[in-house]
Design goal:
Residues 192-386 form the CheB-type methylesterase domain. With 388 residues, the protein is an alpha/beta fold. The protein has two domains: 15-153, Rossmann fold (3-Layer(aba) Sandwich), CATH 3.40.50; 198-383, Rossmann fold (3-Layer(aba) Sandwich). The chain is built from twelve helices and 14 strands. It has helices at residues 28-39, 53-63, 79-89, 103-114, 130-153, 207-215, 219-224, 237-249, 302-313, 330-338, 356-362, 372-383; strands spanning 19-24, 44-50, 67-71, 94-100, 119-123, 198-203, 227-231, 253-255, 267-269, 275-281, 284-290, 317-321, 342-346, 368-370. The strands form three sheets. The protein has a seven-stranded parallel sheet, with helices on both faces. A five-stranded parallel sheet has the order 2-1-3-4-5, sandwiched between helices. Strand 12, helix 10 and strand 13 form a beta-alpha-beta unit. Helix 6 packs parallel to helix 8 (237-249) and helix 9 packs parallel to helix 10.
């Protein structure tokens, strides 16, 4: 598991205020386990526990949930087939895809995001593994809480992206998408005076689709400098995401390898379950993978990548913090700005969750706060020499 958030005090909710959750999984053990976890939370409730995607589609309008936890592999109608049918019936439904950590399920989960799912969560191979089950519980409850609250406010949306791969259906956005907005009116810092020599990107919830959209439009930047990305994701998922980023950008992209030299023209993605740091080796910048404890309850985490880059590039760093829960990237962003570099944050309107970028904005470290579709053009201009 790649991301977990600190538990926060949750105010006691009246029944009408609770996030309504529909659990859809063909395993009675998994359904029962998830239902017990949700039932123990004061701000959410299980309104249905169903065995198949067909049951979910047929009963959706009667149940009217805010959030659906949707298994991928089920009889009658699997999760990826049920997803678009559910979103046609309820466009603002938050769907969290749940699957075991296999390459096939990782591919399906990422495709589900392009079809309108809000997020995904890997299920532990065995519910008897206490640590894995507890991490799954913690992450799932946080995702339901944050995304469910947005759903009740009517502000959940997804972002469109380039095609996932040749032969795949063209991604569609079935949940409402926020219209482009003007940059947020917040206090901003000036961009750093030094020409950036690297682009660092951090993201979490909603990040895969945002990354696909972004890398497809920053070819001139990638050709000039290396691009390093930390996306909160488990193993296998990052392998698949790197392949999709390569296709979207039409540039080489792969998971970072311990000890490899960092070169312009390439995208390096932190592998699931490892922190990706940058170190100097002679005249070269190289990748160092760290198997240490989670940082900000995440592994990989953005802050280690951001902070370690300063020892290599000092103030010649451009960093971007995209949609995601929590505050990962904010402390590293502070360090980058203190060294003379710059931070751009995605705005709230186009973020699936405005946790990470919002933390950076509230910390007063951003040179720009932009809708997703304005970040790439800004980066192209900055790397061409315009730092106004």
């Amino acid at each position: 598991m790649s991301v977990a958030l600190t538990s926060t005090a949750v105010p006691t909710s009246t029944r009408s205020d609770k996030v309504r959750v529909m659990v859809v999984d063909d395993s009675v053990v998994i359904r029962g386990m998830i239902s017990r976890w949700i039932g123990a939370e004061p701000d959410m409730e299980v309104v249905a526990s169903l065995r198949t995607g067909l049951d979910a589609v047929n009963q959706l309008e009667r149940i009217n949930p805010d959030v659906a936890v949707l298994d991928i592999e089920m009889p009658d109608l699997d999760g990826i087939s049920a997803l678009p049918q559910l979103l046609v019936k309820k466009r603002d439904l938050v769907v969290i895809m749940a699957s075991t950590l296999t390459r096939r399920n990782a591919e399906i989960s990422l495709k589900a995001l392009s079809l309108g799912a809000s997020d995904y969560i890997p299920k532990p191979e065995s519910t008897r593994e206490a640590t894995a089950a507890e991490t799954f519980r913690h992450d799932l409850i946080q995702k339901i809480r944050h995304l469910g609250a947005k759903a009740r406010r009517g502000t959940v949306h997804t972002t469109a992206s380039p095609p996932l791969a040749p032969g795949h259906d063209r991604p569609r956005t079935l949940a409402p998408v926020a219209a482009p907005t003007a940059p947020a009116q917040v206090a901003r810092r000036s961009f750093g005076l030094l020409q950036p020599k690297v682009l660092l990107i951090g993201s979490s919830t909603g990040g895969p689709q945002a990354l696909m959209s972004l890398v497809a439009e920053i070819g001139p930047v990638i050709d000039r400098v290396p691009v390093l990305i930390t996306q909160h994701m488990p193993p296998t998922f990052t392998t698949i995401l790197a392949e999709h980023l390569a296709r979207a950008s039409k540039r080489p992209a792969h998971e970072g390898i311990d000890g490899e030299t960092i070169k312009p023209g390439r995208i390096y993605l932190a592998p699931g379950g490892r922190h990706m740091r940058i170190v100097r080796h002679g005249v070269d910048a190289t990748i160092a993978l760290d198997d240490g404890p989670p940082v900000n309850f995440c592994k990989p985490a953005v802050d280690p990548m951001f902070t370690s880059a300063i020892d290599v590039w000092q103030g010649s760093i451009m960093s971007v913090i995209l949609t995601g829960m929590g505050s990962d990237g904010m402390r590293g962003g502070k360090d980058i700005v203190a060294a003379g570099g710059s931070v751009i944050a995605q705005d709230e309107a186009t973020s699936v969750v405005w946790g990470m970028p919002g933390a950076a904005v509230n910390a007063g470290i951003c040179a720009a706060v932009l809708p997703l579709n304005q970040i790439a053009p800004k980066l192209v201009r900055v790397f061409a020499g315009d730092r106004s």
